[in-house]
Amino acid sequence: MKKRILFLSALFFSATAFAQQVTKVTDPVEWINPLMGTQSKYDLSNGNTYPAIAVPWGMNFWTPQTGKMGDGWQYTYDSYKINGFKQTHQPSPWMNDYGQFAIMPVTGKLKVSQNGRSSWFSHKAEIAKPYYYSVYLADHDVTTEIAPTERSAQFRFTYPKNDSSYIVIDAFDRGSYVKVIPGERKIVGYSSKYARGPLKNFKNYFVIYVDKPITTAQVYSDSTLKDGLELNAKHAMAVIGFKTSKGEKVNMRVASSFISIEQAEISLNREVGTDSFDITKQKAKAVWNKTLSKLAVEGGSVEQVKTFYSCLYRMLFFPNKMYELDAKNQPVHWSAQNGQILPGYKFAGTGFWDTFRALYPFLNLVYPSINKEMQQGLINDYKEGGWLPEWSSPGYADVMVGNNSASVVADAYLKGGRGYDIQTLYQALLHGANNDGPAATGRDGVDYYNSLGYVPYDVKINENAARTLEYAYDDFTIYKLGKALNRPASETEIYRKRSMYYKNLFDPQTGLMRGKNKDGKFQSPFNPFKWGDAFTEGNSWHYTWSVFHDVQGLIDLMGGKQKFSAKLDSVFSLPPVFDDSYYGEVIHEIREMQIAGMGQYAHGNQPIQHMIYLYNYAGEPWKTQLHVRDVINKMYHSAPDGYCGDEDNGQTSAWYVFSAMGFYPVTPATDQYVLGAPLFKKVTLTLENGKTVTINAANNSAANRFVTSLTVNGKPYTNNWLSHKALQQGGVLNFNMSAVPNKARGTKAADVPYSLSNEK
Question: Where is the signal peptide (predicted)?
Answer without folding.
Answer: 1-19
